[in-house]
Design brief:
Layout lengths: L1 H18 L17 E2 H13 L3 E11 L7 E10 L3 E8 L3 E6 L2 E6 L4 E6 H5 L5 H4 L5 H4 E4 L3 E2 L7 E7 L8 E6 L6 E7 L5 E10 L18 E3 L9
Parallel strand pairs: 7-14
Antiparallel strand pairs: 1-9, 2-3, 2-13, 3-4, 4-5, 5-6, 6-7, 8-10, 10-11, 11-12, 12-13
């Protein structure tokens, strides 16, 4: 159980670190709603939307589709993000789970298991993940090769689309797919495709960037009677 949760957490954090560029609501001044956007223009608007904002609170739902299986695994909850580098995920479905990254430590709390997995953020996510983007230390095009239609207009679900291929092993995914709300340039859908063809999709709603986000949310106190364990370590392939 702990191993499954740990793997899920890394995927969730990767999605979150991509999501955070959406920070900010409302139409972008001089927006191009209603007309097609050039790819470079869209990338620039998404980047600018991220850079303007410092925090958010949102609801999310998640769907995991494993290649070769018809049934999807679903989840839901809420997320808080505070730049630089702090986030808290509270899963309510399919079971309660708390994931906290505070820039230094990563905590994955599994109440039903009475366990918490503790690790360094750097050890779990590495130094070449989109955490650099979250911390304001890298631009979108520095971490990914960005593709999409040469001229963008709203398509599926009324969203603009970008496809990202991580550069130099920046993520354990073959591709990242973004769905972007065309009036605000918020990323409201993130799809992660792993090298085996499994797809994790996350949708974000009720995005609030106006209310305060308490830094205390990103601290974790181990509850009495809960075991603290390390994530599993697997030998490097030979």
């Amino acid at each position: 159980m702990a191993f499954r949760a740990s793997n899920t957490a890394v995927g969730v954090l990767a999605a979150c670190l991509l999501l955070v560029r959406q920070l900010g609501v409302g139409a972008t001044p001089g927006g191009a709603t209603g007309r097609a956007l050039a790819l470079d223009d869209l990338v620039a608007r998404v980047q600018a939307q991220y850079e303007r904002t410092t925090h958010l609170h949102a609801q999310f739902r998640q769907e995991i589709r494993v290649r070769g299986f018809d049934q999807a695994h679903t989840g839901a909850g809420q997320v808080w993000i505070l730049k630089p580098g702090m986030m808290r995920w509270e899963y309510t479905k399919p079971e309660r789970q708390t994931i906290i990254a505070n820039g230094d430590m990563l905590w994955i709390y599994l109440p039903a298991e009475r366990q918490v997995i503790r690790d360094r953020v750097h050890a779990s996510l590495g130094s070449r993940t989109p955490a650099l983007f979250l911390a304001g230390q890298a631009r979108l095009t520095e971490l990914f090769a960005v593709t999409g239609p040469s001229s963008q207009a709203p398509g599926e679900e009324g969203l603009l689309r970008l496809e990202l291929t991580p550069k130099q092993g920046a993520l354990p995914y073959a591709q990242v797919q973004l769905g972007i709300e065309p009036s605000s340039y918020q990323v409201v859908r993130v799809g992660l495709v792993d090298p085996l063809g499994n797809v994790t999709t996350m949708w974000f709603s009720n995005i609030d960037t106006g209310g305060a986000v308490d830094p205390a949310l990103f601290q974790f106190q181990v509850p009495p009677g809960v075991d603290v364990i390390s994530p599993p370590v697997f030998p490097a392939p030979r």
